[in-house]
Amino acid sequence: MTRLFDARAEPAAIAFAAEVIRQGGLVAFPTETVYGLGANAFDADAVARVFSAKQRLLSDPLIVHVDLDGALSGARLTLAGLVEKQVLGKLSARQEALACKLAQSFWPGPLTLVLPRGERIPPIVTAGQDTVAVRMPNHAIAQALIQRSGVPIAAPSANRFGHVSPTTAQHVLDDLAGRIDVVLDGGATPIGIESTVLDLTVDPPALLRPGGLIRAAIEAVIGPLRDQPGHAGGVSAADETRPQPSPGLLNRHYAPRAELRVARTTAELIETRRALMARGLSVGALITDAQQADCAGLSPAFVLGHDLESVARNLYAGLRAMDSAGVDVILVSAVEAQGLGEAIADRLRRGSAIASQD
Ligand code: TXA
Ligand code: MG
Fold first, then answer.
1. Could you tell me the pTM of the whole model?
2. What CATH number is given to the structural domain containing 304?
């Protein structure tokens, strides 16, 4: 049975959930990006339950969520603490310098750093790799849960594998009710799209997944990043430190059940809808405030908002709403891959990839 608590109204729920984590159970909790499905990162059996609850492939590593380490202040001490606790392995001087700068600038926040794995992190967390992804979430409930449990928390997004990430407690229940122990409801997540994943084990660091922290903010602190593997303009095959694509970055990830189609313009969206409906298909649309006048009378439609921040915040709720409405096809307009648009465009591309590319 899954127990749902409103963690905002019932602070005691966090102590209860922390005990569940310590006992090897599974707790879904809000972060500033999306809801995570957490287990004690030091407990291989607990982490194995995360994979089976989500039906996630064991080849797809998890992010380890850490806290500010109580009284320790300053990113240098925090990172040293993670090495000391054997969450992280020994860092090179360069890795340490970069990680410190980034942690100081962006933690707590939507930035995940890939670094050498420490001895206490069992291989199941990292899909057998000798690197581990860590981040410090910027959310009071997540931080309290990690602190109260007294262990780092391994957590993927709290959805069924391959499905859209959850941005509300109800989304978590829709995917995982009966399969996990506790859901802590902290309301809708403020960013709504997953964290940016940055690999610091290659030089220059590689952006493995664009996310809630924009590329330009990172580059302002540590200089130019290597492009994502496989992107045009990426590194050459001869480069020995060429990063592997992030294992979780499959095509047709972050996908709704309906077919997602990305239109270049509002006119194309309206025309595509007409053509699909003429073929007897039911069609829903995700539209921005600016498109509302042109798309008047178009139903079902879900309004994403007026700027990139609101589009990111509302995108997954919109995809899930259209799935609930039972449409065959969801139409959405393309977003320019700039700033937060890079992560949104990435998710739209993955969500609309053809299923045969699984
Ligand atoms: O915002 C987020 O990142 C959310 C919240 C809950 O923190 N978590 C999340 O987790 O999106 P998940 O498991 O859905 O995505 C984790 C991503 C995957 O693309 C995975 O491949 C990558 O991080 N990753 C994890 N460990 C890695 C490693 N050692 N090397 C490279 N990529 C890694
Ligand atoms: Mg996920």
1. 0.93
2. 3.40.50.11030
